[in-house]
Amino acid sequence: MSNQRPVYLVDGSRTPFLKARGKPGHFYAADLAINAGRALLLRQPISPTDFDEVIFGCVSPTADESNIARIIALRLGCGEKTPAFTVQRNCASGMNAVDSACRNIAHGYSDLVLAGGVEAMSHTPLIFKESMVNWLADWNMAKSTGAKLKALKSFKPGNLAPVIALLRGLRDPVVGLNMGQTAEKIAYRFDISRDEMDAFSVQSHQRLGNAIEQGHHSEVIPLYTSAGNVLPNDDGLRANSSVENLAKLRAVFDKPAGRVTAGNSAQITDGAACLILASEEAVERHKLKVLARLHPAQWAGVDPSQMGLGPVHAIAKTLVEHQLPLHDIDYWEINEAFAAQVLSCIKALNDDNYCRNEIGLEHAMGDIDQAILNIDGGGISQGHPVGASGARIILHMANILKRQGATKGIASLCIGGGQGGSMLIEGVS
Known about the structure:
Elements: E1 7-14, E2 18-19, H1 29-42, E3 53-57, H2 68-75, E4 84-87, H3 93-106, E5 112-120, E6 126-127, H4 130-141, H5 145-153, E7 163-164, H6 165-169, E8 171-172, E9 177-178, H7 179-189, H8 194-214, E10 223-224, E11 230-231, H9 243-246, E12 269-279, H10 280-286, E13 292-294, E14 298-301, H11 310-321, E15 331-334, H12 339-349, H13 352-359, H14 379-382, H15 389-404, E16 408-415, E17 419-427
Parallel strand pairs: 3-4, 3-5, 15-16
Antiparallel strand pairs: 1-12, 1-13, 2-12, 5-12, 6-7, 8-9, 10-11, 13-17, 14-17, 16-17
């Protein structure tokens, strides 16, 4: 740690997180990132061409957005000579992009980096089944009329049934479970009740509503549709959410007796977040204001069937790396993929047996007070555009530390496939 250069978060902005409503949303992923990035760059004393590189996380860019980071860089005017690359670590892609930038600056490879994450989940395509692809191949190879007729006879209407790529992407192919099923497993393991999950979800919506009312999401820039409509805030907020209303919802992933519902899970969402990271030399050279200091993230792997516990292991690595007790952390952001997942992480962190047997610690790390966890809402109320959430929680944690005059925060999230990521963020005076 001592031989690494300090890394600073200069500024950041994000779009509102827009709930997917069955049809493709107003914006493609690149458009979302451009809107967030343009607003951010317009208020800086630097030129887009001053960046050494551009790094973005994205899980499922469209076919027209290959290496979406390069598209973002060029459209923002960073210039042809500025390299750019895209990273993919499922739900932590945005955090991975920021971490990549952080490490490059810390080791002296870069001084000024534009990093972030983006996802337009509503644009995840419907795809053909393999049987249809094979039929189309046979049809294209059929040259004579007879061969065409033979191919037509072999066609089956069932070939046209679409495959929902989003559902395939949210399913772990190694253990054969979708993410909601993994949440059910850890809810059972840590005895998280349906009432606890629903109460946590209501709290998320209440906190988001309060944050919007109090102006605590200052990093959010409004979007404007092609029809001229303004989208100023995260639009998944359910201001009238209540435990009584949520109790009416049926289990989605483990019917009929499960506990995880659409109401206590993160919303499928479109959104982007952009951050500017700089070395101390770049801060001085460009006379930049500083929002927070970032430290390289810690990453951990867990059983894919219990992927929601990934933050516990990554947080443990962060606390050990920085020689910090859990109670030294002023604020926490743990991405709300599922209420069951966050509540299970809280219990696991405070469980002697889990910390001793699963992580190798001598005792439990401690209890996270929910009063300092996700204080302005989270993925259940705001939504979870998978490529963007990791960047969002880092940026928002930095803003919380500034607003509260606090010194230390940790941002963490679980990762499909059985991983966890965690980053220490420090407030600066």
